[in-house]
Write a structure and sequence with these properties.
Order of helices and strands: EHHEEHHEE
Strand order of the largest sheet: 1-2-3-5-4
CATH class: Alpha Beta
Radius of gyration: 14 Å
Distance between the termini: 14 Å
Shape: globular
Bound molecules: adenosine-5'-diphosphate, magnesium ion
Length: about 130
């Protein structure tokens, strides 16, 4: 199953993206796994809006969710920005300062996803189920 959603670059759209995601997540997933996925996706959508699209409302964020039953959830977030240059390693991510205001999003994504890749202005997250 594949679903897509396009949102504009305003943080008001975060709720829409979260509700969309929750609607399609498999009912069989544990609450904690669902919470982790929603948390990571919210961080990535926030990054796409703020860092990628520089909060220019007319720029869009393209979300795609692909669920392979009992196997995996692949979530892609694409923005209209210049792209991401690198990801923190797992080791760097584990040293995260939880109280620091910035720099937690990608580290959370690295720690809570089962695979993460960046391709220009696209983040591809895989969660196994
Ligand atoms: N979609 C994106 N486009 C461009 N740069 C990005 C994007 N997402 C993240 N980044 C870069 O990676 C950095 C780290 O992101 P993150 O870990 O979420 O921390 P924060 O958002 O608090 O800066 C950002 O400050 C930004 O420079
Ligand atoms: Mg962030």
């Amino acid at each position: 199953m594949t679903r897509t959603l396009i949102v504009s670059s305003s943080l008001d759209e975060l709720e829409k993206a979260s509700l969309w995601l929750i609607r399609y997540l498999p009912k069989s997933l544990s609450e904690s796994k669902k919470n982790n996925i929603v948390l990571v996706v919210q961080e990535m959508v926030t990054n796409a809006i703020i860092h990628g699209n520089k909060s220019i409302k007319s720029k869009e964020v393209f979300l795609s969710l692909k669920i392979i039953e009992n196997t995996s959830i692949t979530f892609t977030i694409e923005d209209e920005g210049l792209g991401l240059s690198s990801l923190p390693s797992k080791e760097e991510a584990k040293k995260m300062d939880y109280l620091q205001e910035g720099g937690r999003g990608l580290k959370l994504a690295v720690l809570l996803s089962d695979d993460i890749q960046i391709k220009e202005n696209k983040v591809i997250l895989v969660f196994t189920i």
